[in-house]
Amino acid sequence: MEFAFEALASRFDRMLGRMHKVGDTQRGLIILDKSSYETSLQALALKFRTDGHRWGMLRNLAETPLFVDSAATRMIQYADLVAYALRRYYERGDATYFDIIKQKFDAQGGVVNGLVHQIAPDDQCNCHACT
Fold first, then answer.
1. Residue 85: how many other CB atoms lie within 10 Å
2. Distances (CA, A) of 5 to 16, 25, 92, 109
3. In a 10 Å sphere around its CB, with 0-12 CB exposed, 13-18 middle and 19+ buried, how is residue 45 labelled?
4. Spatial separation of the C-alpha atoms in residues 60 and 53, rounded to whole Å
5. Within 13 Å of residue 94, how many CA atoms lie on the same side as its CB?
6. Residue 116 CA to chain centroid, in angstroms?
7. Which of 49, 47, 50, 43 lies closest to 28 in space, CA to CA?
8. DSSP secondary structure letters along 8-35
């Protein structure tokens, strides 16, 4: 969970940094479904802002991560739909829903920055994130 959050936060921060460089300055919010990880992820985000993470420092987030009950907001339910599409794609090889959203992940110069697929160093993969 911590590695996934670190990758998500750093990639989101880098996207906001690239936007800033072209004159579109914004601060981002990370909003997550309530979970038992709430306290540890908030502390981790604070550490990333003060001490940095393995790829640098968080500079473009407006707030520590916010946690909400998915029953209370559709925003988290949308995230659940994205997660479902990704799970079907990576675990079942079913791209039906992934194909609808795959062009929405942050990309620059043909490189997809907003999607990561962790594989063993010796493995090869032809998925959208790896190619």
1. 19
2. 16, 23, 24, 25
3. buried
4. 14
5. 8
6. 8
7. 49
8. HHHHHHHHHHHHHHTT----B--EEE--
Question: Of 72, 79, 100, 77, which Cα lies nearest the Cα of 12?
Answer: 79
10-residue stretch averages of pLDDT, the chain, 131 residues long: 91 95 95 90 91 91 89 87 95 96 93 89 90 84
Q: Is 93 left (phi over 0), alpha (psi -120 to 50) or beta?
A: left
CB of 85 closer than 8 Å to CB of 101? yes
Please report, for residues 9, 25, 64, 81, 124, the alpha-carbon distance to residue 45 in angstroms, rounded to integers and kept in the order given.
8, 21, 6, 25, 32
Tokens 């079942």 sit at which residue?
92
pTM for the full predicted model: 0.83
Q: How far is CA 87 from CA 24, 26, 33, 82, 90, in A?
A: 32, 30, 17, 9, 5
Phi, psi (rounded to 5 degrees) for 53: -130, -175
| DSSP-assigned letter for residue 61 | B
Q: What is the pLDDT of residue 41?
A: 92
